Amino acid sequence: MKTILALLLALAISPVSTALADAPVASQELLWASDGEANVPYVFHDPAHESQMTGFEYELVNEIAARLHRKAKFIQNDWDGLIPGLSRGLYGMVLDGIEMTPEHKAAVLFSRPYYVTSERIIVRNDQNGLDTMEALKGHTVGTIKDTTAERMLRRQGGSNVRSYEEETNAFSDLRNGRLDAILLDAPIALYYGSISPDMKLVGEPIGSMEYGIAFSPENRELRDQVDAALGEIIKDGTLHRILARWNLWTPLMANYTGDTSQPDIAPTEWDRYRQAMANTTGSGWYVLARRYVSFLPLIGQAALMTLAVSALAMILAVALGLLLALSRHYGAAPLRFVAGVYVEVVRGTPLLIQVLFIFYGLPAFGIRLSPFMAGVLSLGLNYAAYEAENYRAGLLSVPRGQMEAAVALNMTHWQALRLVIVPQAFRTVVPVMTNDFISLLKDSSLVSVITLTELSQTYVRLSSTYYDYFGTGIMVGLAYLLLGLPFVRLARMAERRLGRGFSGTGHH
């Protein structure tokens, strides 16, 4: 047990768990963030080497950092958390194909554009005629939420528009016949649609939009430094070379930069990505086995993080839950009121809202927690409310005479609670505690929204990279199952050792 607790505490204070602690953005490291879970070709995990990040934005940031004589440090965050994390000071800038719309410009500072692109239509190979915006009317069309493509479709009207969080889900629905077409930014369309044998890009590029690097409005100095470096990268042709290697240099970029040169640059990264996908997306038993074996280290690391967060949160929940139960059952009126309000408020609000509030809301009051600590605290505080009700029911199940007998033996009220009542109540709630811990293990998936890489986030990354939701889902599901089974066995052993709880009811 001491070894397990030591491991959990080590994980809690390890560099992995504290990578997002509030380091100043003015340090030698250039902290930047993106959502690299399913973000080809911007920032993503290399299919050939899952532990390595790559992408044209990833290369661009490294080049910018070199010009500023700093070391770039990538921080993973979900799309919805990128700008809140920027405002919280977790990192200095964000690159994630963020469109420089008037709404976005009102919220953050932007660099000069680093990429100009358009929208493209993707359909299945057996479809024809859906190659213009007008032709999409009357059809079910998928896109990514809060993008120029979505606004174009809704402004035109006439289409059944389905908006997605992840582009991989849209392509899956197109492949399965749930969508008739997809409208997406050209880089996404190229890297997801054109390499799939059952899909094709159709029609001409539609419209245009600009991507910019986002900064907090208070971080104008860093914006100006990065903007100057970006200007040099555009002027000396470095940006042209990066984009050409990713097969992303287009006439739109030539017009924007004024760079009409045609250097002989092979699309090496584009070819490497296609080859990596061809090597990993086969269906033969050998290919599948090799792929799944390569997943084991990543799933193992994610499982350890899930276990660490869940175990420490459960310890907090048990301790605080017992305190709340005793307060509601034996405390003075003000204490009973406060404990009751806490239980009802926590049980009446969604856990996801509590996670986001603790991580992004508390800094407004000067309380800044690392993602690991915020995850443990939010899960622990939430489950404490449920544990409090379980323990209160356990206290009520202890016969009234037990307290009277303890007092008659000259015990103080506190001694009677500690030595007689609470141990008997604990016996009756052991099975419920086990169920709650298993539920907490699964609910720990919600901490992925505050950048912790646990099992659910690992599943999203692997399944979206290889378009394999079935096999990867089974592996991650088994990991959750294996984490929970030992605690079920421990609970049964504890039940047998402690014996059956006492029956009867009463109030002490």
TrEMBL record:
Kindly state one GO CC term assigned in the UniProt record.
ATP-binding cassette (ABC) transporter complex
Please state where this protein is localized: Cell inner membrane; Cell membrane
Q: Which residues form the signal peptide?
A: 1-21
* Recorded family membership: Belongs to the binding-protein-dependent transport system permease family. HisMQ subfamily.
Topology in membrane: Multi-pass membrane protein
Per its UniProt record, what InterPro entries does this chain match? AA_ABC_transptr_permease_3TM (IPR010065), ArtM/GltK/GlnP/TcyL/YhdX-like (IPR043429), MetI-like (IPR000515), MetI-like_sf (IPR035906), Solute-binding_3/MltF_N (IPR001638)
Under the heading Gene3D superfamilies, the entry gives: MetI-like, Periplasmic binding protein-like II
What is an example of a GO molecular function annotated in this UniProt entry?
transmembrane transporter activity
Question: What keywords tag this UniProt record?
Answer: Amino-acid transport, Cell membrane, Membrane, Signal, Transmembrane, Transmembrane helix, Transport
For this protein, the record's NCBIfam families field holds:
HEQRo_perm_3TM
Does this UniProt record's set of keywords contain Cell inner membrane? no
Q: In this protein, which residues make up the domain named ABC transmembrane type-1?
A: 303-491
Instruction: List membrane-spanning regions.
Output: 302-325, 337-362, 469-488
The UniProt entry's coiled-coil ranges are none
The Gene Ontology biological process annotation of the record reads: amino acid transport
Q: Which domain of life is it from?
A: Bacteria
Its name, as the record gives it, is: Amino acid ABC transporter permease
Stored Pfam families: BPD_transp_1 (PF00528), SBP_bac_3 (PF00497)
